[in-house]
Amino acid sequence: MSLTFDAIILGAGAAGLFCAAQAGQRGLKVLLIDHAERVGEKIRISGGGRCNFTNRDLDVRAPHKHFVGQNPQFCRSALSRYTPQDFIALLQKHGIPFHEKHKGQLFCDRSAEDIIQMLLAECAAGQVQRWQPCKVQKIGFVATESGGSYQLDTSQGVVQAPSLVVATGGLSIPKIGATDLGYRLAQQFNIPLVERHPGLVPLTFDGTDWAPYAQLSGLALPVSISTGSKKNLMAFDEDLLFTHRGLSGPAVLQISSYWQQGTPLSLNLAPTVDLPTALAQAKLRSRKLIANELATLVPSRLADAWASQEADWQRPIAEASDKALARLAERLSRWQLTPTGTEGYKKAEVTLGGIDTKALSQQTMEAKAQPGLYFVGEVVDITGWLGGYNFQWAWASAFACAQGL
Ligand code: FDA
């Protein structure tokens, strides 16, 4: 005997919970299935435990500014129908306190758990049934004259529904439940995929090349970082963090979503200082070592590490040649380096690529060639910048889908 629902939603993360709540509140009989013990694990660990749930600076008329994918314009329809202000209003309705941190980023005052409890309360208001932990063993589709029906064999029994929403997220952080089920389902139903890569991820370097910089592990500083050709340059002004194996921090996480394997990054490690002028002036008035003068312009650990790179830079600044100082300024303000790779899905916040947006309706997120099959959230080839954009995409795509079910 199989149970019948109006819609089955796979994945009780940000997009799945929100879609289930919205569809349930529209009067649909909804079943939400997740294989994990707890719902919303990524919400729980997001934003350092405080969940950066949206971003006030989102410009819905220009999604390419904050979203990556083969066609960032695809998300415009959903983002304009469910905006950051709509989600803020929902938090206010639930009395959840929040604050703005940096560049429009909104965080919970207390904890990410507030968002999870809010989403569960919204699901309860829509009488959403939840099966969890529940393993999905097989998914089939039977076409009928009126459309068709999806049948799922699960560890809790057989269920069917005319609509199946795939909200199984990306591949990052497998230890808390990420799987490739969404991509496998796409393949099963001949829906095209864009190649997947870790995004918002620390970058790594060859061990030998990185050895001189490993001593800087833990150092954080504001930088300008860029990648790409002149015509296609992507640049961020954010904080950089040196690690034992490479570079991290918001600057690198952001640029990682644009970086192509084998290409260099360019970093200005002193973006607010006119280094050539500052060093030339110091030469005229100081007898200190170059490293000590440099330490008045950039963090002293960085000054020491850079000055130790050339014999010409290990002397009193008054004795340095103009050429040597110009070279030092250049090396700090146009540091070129080519990562060998990334820290991978273990450390990535998101997955780039996924369900090809060409195959989906931007109004409802339904697969154009497979009636009743929907994809929402991170499983789709839409990836946001760091700063709450990924959750806003999860809420907005889930909302668009729930209206179309
Ligand atoms: P999500 O990953 O949330 O949910 C997918 C669900 O599907 C999970 O519950 C999973 O268990 C379930 N599932 C997977 N495979 C399954 C299977 N085979 N069977 C059944 N269920 C299955 N974004 C942001 O905007 N602000 C932030 O502060 C952060 N911070 C952050 C920190 C860290 C450490 C990470 C890893 C990520 C972030 N993000 C973020 C990104 C954000 O968490 C992410 O984009 C959204 O959670 C995506 O929502 P989804 O619902 O699409 O997937």
TrEMBL record:
Protein's UniProt keywords contain Amino-acid biosynthesis: no
Protein name, per record: NAD(P)/FAD-dependent oxidoreductase
Organism, as annotated: Giesbergeria sinuosa
Record domain RsdA/BaiN/AoA(So)-like insert: where: 197-350
Gene3D superfamilies given in the database record: FAD/NAD(P)-binding domain (3.50.50.60), HI0933 insert domain-like (1.10.8.260), Translation factors (2.40.30.10)
Cofactor(s) recorded in Swiss-Prot or TrEMBL: FAD
Alphabetic keyword roster: FAD, Flavoprotein
Domain of life: Bacteria
Organismal lineage: Bacteria, Pseudomonadati, Pseudomonadota, Betaproteobacteria, Burkholderiales
InterPro entries for the chain: BaiN-like (IPR004792), BaiN-like_dom_sf (IPR023166), FAD/NAD-bd_sf (IPR036188), RsdA/BaiN/AoA(So)-like_dom (IPR055178), RsdA/BaiN/AoA(So)_Rossmann (IPR057661)
Every RsdA/BaiN/AoA(So)-like Rossmann fold-like domain range: 6-403
Keyword Flavoprotein part of the UniProt annotation: yes
